[in-house]
Amino acid sequence: MEELKNYGHQHPLLMLNEEQLLGNGNGVVDCSRCGEKVSAPCFSCVECCGFYLHRTCAEAPLELNHPFHRHHPLLLLQNPPYTSDTRCVCDFCNEACEKFIYHCSCGLDFHIKCALFTFNIAERNLKELEHVALEDPSFSSKNDGGNLGKCFACWEPLAIDTYFSLDCGFNLHKKCAELPPKMGHVCHRKHPLLLQFNSERLSCKICQVTQQRGFLYGCSTCNLAIHIDCLSPLPVIEDKSHQHPFTLFWRQIPFICDACGTEGHHVAYACCTCSIMVHKKCISLPRIIRHVYHVHRVFHTYFIHKEYSESLNCIWCHEVVDTEYGSYFCADCNVIFHVNCALKEKEWYCIVSQENEDDKSLDIPVNSITKFLETNDAGEATLIEHCKHRHYLMLSDKISEHGDKCCDGCLLLISAKFYHCMRCDFFLHKSCAELPKMDLILDHRCVGKPFSGSKSFILTSDCMFECDICGYLSNGFSYKCNECGIHRCVQCATLQNDVKIPGHKHPLLFYYDYEEQCSGCGTDISCAFRCKDCNFHLCNLCILRPTRVRHKCDQHILALTYDKVNDYLEYHYCDICEENKDSKNWFYHCETCDTSAHVDCVLGKYPLIKLGSTYNEGDHPHPLTFVKKFPYYPECVECGKSCEDLSLECAEPGCKYIAHWECRKSAIRGEQLGDGTCAAQVAEQVDEGPRCGTPRVAAVSFSFLQMG
User: Fold this and answer.
1) I need a surface site. Which of 207, 516, 532, 559 has the fewest CB within 10 A?
2) What CATH number has the domain spanning 289-357?
3) One-character DSSP codes across 354-369
């Protein structure tokens, strides 16, 4: 028997043939280096400690000078050199590396078999392929579009050429196994291009796509990389998106693509009939798409006609679109996208195949005011019937008489014209009363489903829900998706992509992909409402912060303070929690009493739950009412602590039941919030007994920023 001392194991190893392997009773064991099943000949530990190695793995060099990576040697490591939360992936086969790997400080990682297999390809040692039959992609069942359907060298589909499929799991085009190690090319005449791994993660000079796995041709001196498939582009391409064929045109200088408006290099395709020049990838741009940011279809166009030639900003990135080049455009709304912005996220758009599809049905709102009973001289409805209340509602502008009332739709402090019920404690802002009963909500994709166009949402009320945008629990009006059932509060559902807020002179524009710290609360954010002129950006919650609030800590209205006016030491502490307060963040302040408080301390955890509303829940025989008790705090029947926060109190005379909402919420875990099902029904207040007109216990009342 051949004996071997091996890196990574303390005992000597003995070589076993197939008979010896079976004789040891270990016919099926895993290699301790690569994790795959061992076959003879192999090595086994002389101490019988269960350590086995393939012969190839056992004889793998500790240092491998790989021809496809000439900068540094690849070092054999027992484990990936990363933290436990970082996944190590092989740069050849794209599978996870969990045991021994070859690693380079450049960030390259390979399974042992992948490093040695590619080494043999580089050395033209193709014995491993000599007895492997070529497969014809026309008859193969492996071309499923996933990794098994890709060549591990060029990462193009196996369907484009004959290929090898090895027992070890490698798929390789025949032409990729025979690539020359060095070649000259018309797009880079200074130096030869060498076949190599993409250790520097360079994008292809021709198609601008970064391919991290497999091989490419590159020039290290010039930091240039070209994909294998891009070296020999097709001379003529025809596509259904354009009526004429495109012809290959090599360029030595950059050009601007007429289809997308961005720069291209070396390879262009020209349509001589239309006098346009495009990237190869732009030949097949979808002609019509639906996008999550616009309700109508948008059409790809190579230029905008003169009547639309005024400056147009992309609805996604808010930068000017050069209309002399390609874009996606809705002529009905003057909405435009850069091509790359429209197609940036695959889950945010869908391709429309039928050009004659009708968009008109998307523009017809369903009014939630079911009947106009009386109007004034200006044609304004003064008495209405509304789908969300059983009594008539009367229009009023007497805000001062109802300054402590909240709108039952948006739960904001009454601050503009409103409708109210003469028989119940029911109020609706005029704008909330006029909300459509059914609407199309932008910026929504049903979870687990591909985007197929804007979804219709139904206006709902009288149930507890969790808003999928702000995350607040609420029992006001919401819009509910017809398909997936998620709820969106009125504030978030009607929030536009451009907002004007008090305290800032410029409009704020929504950026989906923007990493910064919120100027209002200081938290790290990945999307923001951002000012293009200033270093000012707000998260989704801060854009909807109440500008004025009432709280039990002060008898006056507290104002949301934006400026850094905290010159006095006492302003650096919150008068509610008595903790330090970051003076750079927004806070609430009373100028009369010098009261200052954290935003979250003032608003609490449930600012959008309607106090005084009735909650029907099965554990208690009577209806329960949402309250905040002040100035006395009775004990919670569940936990025995004082009910200082949001609580549920029995409205039945003689029943002294009261419990924290947090305690009751824990007791009804079976009723899921945010899954499309209302957690519990909230009864509407009508004059059907002594509880009619129960006053709201308003420890906190608020009005939100006015949207521009």
Assistant:
1) 532
2) 3.30.60
3) -TT---GGGG--EESE
